Amino acid sequence: MKIVCDRDKLLDGIMTSQKAVSGKSTLPILGGLLLDCRTGDLRIMSTDLDIGIECTVEAEVVEKGWVVLDSRLLGEIIRKLSFNDVEIIIDETNVASIKCGNSHFTIQGQGGEEFPQLPEVRSEKKISLPQDLLKSIVRQTVFACAVDETRPILTGVLMECKGEEISMAALDGFRLALRTIKVSEQLPDISVVVPSKTLNEIYKILKDHEQEVEIFFTDNQMLFRIGSTKVVSRLLEGEFINYSQIIPDEYTTRVKVKTLDFLESCERASLLAREGKNNLIRLEICEDVVKITSNAEIGMVNEEVNVVMEGKELKIAFNSKYLTDALKVIESEHIEMQLTTNINPCVLKPVQSENYTYLLLPVRVAE
Amino acid sequence: MKIVCDRDKLLDGIMTSQKAVSGKSTLPILGGLLLDCRTGDLRIMSTDLDIGIECTVEAEVVEKGWVVLDSRLLGEIIRKLSFNDVEIIIDETNVASIKCGNSHFTIQGQGGEEFPQLPEVRSEKKISLPQDLLKSIVRQTVFACAVDETRPILTGVLMECKGEEISMAALDGFRLALRTIKVSEQLPDISVVVPSKTLNEIYKILKDHEQEVEIFFTDNQMLFRIGSTKVVSRLLEGEFINYSQIIPDEYTTRVKVKTLDFLESCERASLLAREGKNNLIRLEICEDVVKITSNAEIGMVNEEVNVVMEGKELKIAFNSKYLTDALKVIESEHIEMQLTTNINPCVLKPVQSENYTYLLLPVRVAE
């Protein structure tokens, strides 16, 4: 194998592919990147057996071939090169010769055939979304996935397509984040649970522009095609919770508040909530104002935020993290809270939009 | 005590003072900041008993007093405030009431009298230096201090003033970094060993401008006055090594090389040196070129850097870190290496300047 390519493009491809390299795999070859030039272009691949990433990099392929090279070392070498033209030659014993300017590295690699193949995802089931939109959807949902593995299905995000609507939902037993998007085309019927780890990696690859991502689905795999990068992921198996029945559609108290003011006050209250055991903040919802308090051994905090309230006054307590998590990702200037009693779930929504719903369980506290 | 001050200025003072707060002190009060308004201005103080930092912050002192507040919590609270005017009131039980906009924190503090006093450093022995110059001197020397404590005196930098010259020297048994400055005034005779920790903190406080730092010396303390900040530090006790006798003044090989090219090649060679056990890079000094090589189990690297050499050709090996450490801080475009044999110390200097000398012991290796 012999290729010549541009340092910056090569580094870009390596850094993107590296995201799937697991540091602590028991299979040493998974600490490597597969450089595959068998078909005339350079594809850089990595996998941890759950996720696989493949980047196609512009390169002049002088001689076809493939090799696996240590991911960390290769990345560091390419990053440190001072010139643009990089030549990589692999001999029959999988030794890589990397030349650039007056630098010459010789690195022992492994045969490409030893690297696990990425699964082929061929499917007619396909949707397309602008990158920035998918990025925003992932950001608004994935944080609500369960972290602990006692119910593995909840460590993923349920992605459903039906008619002209896409929805993504995540829940962990304490809160639910649901984002929906209307599109102007008929979508295939899809219902899959995507591991949160996959979405976190996808989030880092997505750019803030409108170029489309294509997503393909099979029964147990999905494929994201983002520009010259392909990400293949397994899906989680099992039945997701039927969340639609837990979202209340009635309420007796409605509060409209400026998102940023509310977030900042909750974050300040969190400083003391964190000192306590349970991260607890208390809200006293009055006609024009929400009073937020929190106390710990070392002291206490009182915050007041101006609101517009309709309905009953109410005292309610929340885990401050679960509240601020949502306030950070809601993109509208004002939000609306819908409440019934201090033991019923509270719903947060952007004002003047139905595309995001966050449901949050209160914490029961003694008066 | 009652004060009103500006959030940004207060935060600035807190962040600077916090640098001396030790996270792991056995004395809980050292996790606090002393806010001292007994004399009509606000001074924020911290100490870990080795270093003490005092910042004077512009504030309207309505009522005099003092208090100790948890450093981390106070910093986080002030950072999160959304408005400028902060009011702090301390009652007779040392409870602090911090008000800003619609936020009101109540934090239990401790009495100011419980905080250890910073030592008074009153001395006629004083020098002044521009901040940016002192910053550069610290950067060029402090990295060469010993890290391990087997010879405590070597964990500090020897600072000497004599006639019209200031010198700072650090050494750890493998290398020596020496920086000298000529000034245009007669200096007091000074010879002290400053803990590297103090200089590292000073480095973070110093700004990149020419405003002067005043440094005062007593027998066992020194005081840096940097704008509205005072830093007091104990000095290390003991005899420093007489380094002047270990700097060779003769050589048989002299190499002139572009600093950045040499640094980048050494850094690339380090990538493989690091994989081996001893961080070793080998230099083969020829007439027009220095060849740099390093090898590890996984592979090897060859680098070539153009040089101008006078004298004998030479093969020599170094710990790559000790070489790159110096190349990173030498500020001239070209450096000069002076060598004799592959077991004699090597001297690095900026070309066309005598103000910096770095001495480096080679590593003996089998041919």
Explain this structure to me?
Two copies of one chain form a homodimer. Chain A has three domains: 2-114, DNA Polymerase III, subunit A, domain 2 (DNA Polymerase III, Chain A, domain 2, Roll); 126-245, DNA Polymerase III, subunit A, domain 2 (DNA Polymerase III, Chain A, domain 2, Roll); 248-360, DNA Polymerase III, subunit A, domain 2 (DNA Polymerase III, Chain A, domain 2, Roll), CATH 3.10.150.10. In chain A, 18% of the residues lie in helices and 43% in strands. Chain A is built from six helices and 26 strands. Chain A has helices at residues 7-17, 71-80, 131-141, 196-205, 259-273, 320-329, and strands spanning 2-6, 32-36, 42-47, 51-57, 59-63, 66-70, 85-90, 95-100, 103-108, 110-111, 126-130, 156-162, 165-171, 175-182, 190-195, 212-217, 221-226, 229-234, 253-258, 280-285, 289-296, 299-311, 314-319, 334-339, 346-350, 356-360. In chain A, the strands form three sheets. A twelve-stranded antiparallel sheet of chain A has the order 15-12-13-14-26-25-24-19-22-21-20-23. A nine-stranded antiparallel sheet of chain A has the order 10-6-2-3-4-18-17-16-11. The longest helix of chain A is centred in the last third of the chain and has 15 residues, at 259-273. The interface between A and B is medium-sized, with 33 and 33 residues.
